[in-house]
Amino acid sequence: MKNKYRAKAISPANIAFIKFWGKKDPLINLPFNDSISMNLSNCFTATEVEFSPRYKRDRVFIDGREVQDEKLVRVVKILDLVRKRAKKKLFVKIVSKNNFPSDAGIASSASAFSALALSASKAAGLSLPQKELSILSRLGSGSASRSVVDGFAEWRKGKDGQTSYAIQLAPPDYWNLADIVAVVDKGKKIAGSTEGHKAALSSPYFKARLVELKTRIPAMKKAFLKRDLEEFGRLLEEEAVSLHVCAMTSKPPIFYWKKGTFEVVEAIFKMRERGVSVYFTMDAGPNVHAICLQKDSNRIRKIFNKLPGVLFTIINKPCLGSRLVK
Ligand code: DP6
């Protein structure tokens, strides 16, 4: 017999062109600024949720291992919201798998919480509109709010919990960009992004960053919509450096950059001197995301793969956001 309390969803990770850094309200993941991102076609989470009277507690398995502690608490917070809304009291079993190596240091919270929001709400019998799904995903992890949308997303900071969600900036085929992730370190991050968000406010440059964003965000949107890679790339790098300056000057300071990070960035500068259009960004970690046109991605990847500090690379294109699968 078919179990009607079961659903499965897949959802991509995303790379932020304009970053979410610092929380105005950490309890509900309200950001200080709008952010912009692209979904990553080769970095997915698939999550299956089943509510059943047979279960005596919530159990969550990620890549074959049962999770406990802080991770479980974050998942249960979303489940409780879904149960309340659907007026269901059942426990769940969740099986979640990432298609990218879980030790690659690629943020999996965006793909994980957006896949969870969709699969859990559907399994509970709810059909939430995109706005509500983005809000529910945001409550799990801020950046997850953007993975709900197809292609390129813009998360509007809003005024409160109900007005802070992502909308589409452009569909996946709007611009044939690629994101080559150059993995330079597989170790556990020195500070998770949740910790980084907290520390951000103690940097003397945090306020300056918010002032800069007032002009950088509209300028980047304009360059994006014109598909002006040179101007877009300039702003992309400026934005990534701005986040890392805040991290490095927060109290205590957080240095995400490693030797391999510098190697990749230098290789990007050298390629640009030779006329190749490629630009870098990083999230709260040492791995570099190189943004270029899809037609150039293979030859750029080959150059990265020869660098001593690069462990491996993953090429991504823009893709659809979270969706249900059979
Ligand atoms: C640097 O969304 O991972 O990747 O809400 O605490 O889960 P939590 O934070 P998270 O922060 C993302 C930080 C970032 C920038 C970005 O993706 O916008």
What's the total helix number?
8
What do we call the CATH topology of the largest domain?
Ribosomal Protein S5, domain 2
Cα-to-Cα separation, first versus last residue: 16 Å
Number of strands: 14
Tell me the domain tally. Answer: 2
Task: State the order of secondary-structure elements, H for helix, E for strand.
Answer: EEEEEEHEHHEEEHHHHEEHEE
Sheet with most strands: 8 strands, mixed
Unreliable runs: none
Shape category: globular
Residue-averaged pLDDT: 95
CATH class descriptor name of the largest domain: Alpha Beta
CATH architecture of the largest domain: 2-Layer Sandwich
Radius of gyration: 19 Å
Q: How much helix is in the residues?
A: 25-40%
Query: What proportion of the residues form beta strands (DSSP E)?
Result: 25-35%
Kindly name the structural category.
alpha+beta
Attached small molecules: ligand DP6
